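Sample intake sheet
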Amino acid sequence: MIKVLNTFDKETFEPLLQLLLKRKVPKSQANRKGFAPHRSVAFGIATSRWNTTGLSVYSKRMPKIYEEILKLGEIVCPFPFKSIHLNNNVVCPKHKDKSNVGESCLISFGDYEGCNIVIEGQIYDAKHTPIIFNGAELEHWNTDDLSGNKYSLVFYN
């Protein structure tokens, strides 16, 4: 089941956007099959490459950004979450998030057009609009037409 929630005002994202524009999102350390090198990091509870679970490195390195992500999550995500994935200009290939449990909440923001989310063949626009779906069960990807600077957040467990 896919739920599209109400769209939020652009201003809702401004505090986080201003912090992100001052600091480049690091390149992902994960070599995920099918994904080109990209800028994304995990916040909240995460499993490290050494298989330890706890507060992510980036939650500790970027506490102001993490705090703003949590504030935004309380506003846009209708369920409790433990982990958050931040993407910057990532165009995802077809995939499933096999480690996620239950629903995920995707929302994007920034000065961009295109790069919509496709879930099981149906196109959705997540710009300022939370999209709730089970990323472990439903295949999803982005359209390959990104223009501008896009940030997206995925709240999940």
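Comment: The chain has a mean pLDDT of 93. The first helix runs from residue 14 to 21.
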